[in-house]
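Backbone-to-sequence.
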């Protein structure tokens, strides 16, 4: 039996380094989750951060940037479900992730995520944006999946930076 547990980014990235088929660790995240078995052994991790696609980075949306398991039954479903539940609890309205053509998406369907459309298929590396290529996933069309509430048409509230000055707006440093 698996249980969702917290995990820090360093530990989640170490798990990804060991077991992910085609991605490297991520440089940052909003939060990470793990699933562990009854012996407290981590069987999978999900790393959730800001969307990679700039047009999705609206303040209401998060992306599961990495989901990685050792093959434990239902681990992916638990991670995707917990990631969406945590995102909603933090006030986010939408969460997205991407799958390659050879990844069926059963875990996403099982937790209520919907395929929205296919994206990509063009190289990240070009004349204006030099990037190292990932032969396994670059240049392939990917399916974007999402779980969403109604996304507001306005950005989330922001505290103006000038109000963060010592002693103002109730902030003490």
């Amino acid at each position: 039996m698996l249980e969702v547990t917290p995990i820090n980014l360093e530990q989640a990235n170490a798990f990804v380094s060991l077991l992910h088929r085609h991605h490297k660790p991520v440089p940052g995240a909003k939060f990470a989750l793990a699933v562990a078995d009854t012996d407290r052994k981590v069987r999978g991790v999900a790393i959730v951060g800001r969307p990679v696609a700039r047009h999705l980075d609206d303040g209401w949306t998060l992306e599961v940037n990495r989901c990685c398991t050792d093959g434990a039954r239902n681990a992916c479903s638990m991670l995707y479900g917990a990631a969406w539940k945590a995102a909603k609890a933090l006030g986010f309205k939408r969460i997205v992730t991407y799958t390659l053509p050879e990844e069926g998406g059963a875990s996403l369907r099982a937790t209520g995520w919907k395929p929205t459309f296919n994206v990509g298929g063009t190289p990240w590396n070009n004349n204006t944006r030099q990037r190292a290529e990932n032969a396994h996933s670059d240049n392939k069309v990917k399916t974007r999946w999402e779980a969403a509430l109604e996304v507001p048409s306005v950005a989330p509230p922001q505290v103006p930076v000038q109000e963060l000055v010592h002693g103002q707006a109730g902030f003490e440093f």
